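note to self: dont lose this again. the chain is below, predicted strucutre after it. 349 aa total, dont forget to put it in the shared folder this time
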Amino acid sequence: MTSHESGDQTNTSEDVSPRGEYTRDMRYITTRVTADGRDGYPVETDRYRLVAARACPWANRAVIVRRLLGLEPVLSLGLCGPVHDERSWTFDLDPGGVDPVLRIPRLQDAYFARFPDYSRGITVPAVVDVPSGQVVTNDFRQITLDFTTEWTRYHRDGAPDLYPEKLRDEIDEINELVFTDVNNGVYRCGFAGSQESYERAYDALFARLDWLETRLTDQRYLVGGTITEADIRLFTTLVRFDSVYHGHFKCNRNKLTEMPALWAYARDLFQTPGFGDTIDFPQIKEHYYRVHTGINPTQIVPKGPELTNWLEPHHRENLGERPFGDGTPPGPPPQDERVPPEGNVGSSS
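---
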């Protein structure tokens, strides 16, 4: 997410909270790209670049939503590498270490182009205005909602409604619970600076996972009968759980694979076009185990766990609900956006 203070950020010296309780810095750039351009940034084709990192769960959300809605032809994607330094996420995956569209080596350059004295985290996802080279927003919560509600004229034929108006109150309620106890809860465990704060976060995390296990036992998706924003937000934490959070963040009451409904639910989504084909497990592990030196000073990246089990049958289709409702799945990702073979476990792509 960022380069300092909040989880997937860049100041590695702040891995563990010195105050005991880990608190995420939620002060993001709230400028929005909207259909009417009320913040000065109207929705336009080929004007903006989504900068993400496959390692980051918060950025992963934006990549999935962009895929599901078919925004690839109008909104380009820049990908940072999995390992950053204390200053910024970097474009070390690109030739010469420079983003080919923005022509910058570090994401911080886009932040400083708009805010020369910017002092908070250099975070992904970020939407950058290509003509000016300036960051527009890094508000990960709003970015995906705006892709769904403000970019509608550019949605592909058959794009799902990920934020149905009649379900928004329930989606918002679920999102808040999941963010507090699960999405951010794993970080509150991993970056806790005292035994007491760790145990509080741990207990809240697994109480919420138990609640989700019960909720998802007899229904295929979190809200309604189709995939919504709520499922996307939960998925990006679940897909990292056994590889990272269980060991690295000490979220070890049990593995995801030991929770039958949640494990089947996560596999169901992983095997759905637009989800698993965005996941690069080697980058995920490299990021957490190499960047968070306060937790893992040796920077040794674990070899496991086994990943082919993500492709095992889930049988969630027997619950009778349809992932895209009256819509259709997205096609394969663009060739230049496909997960490298070493990171792909054979998900639909």
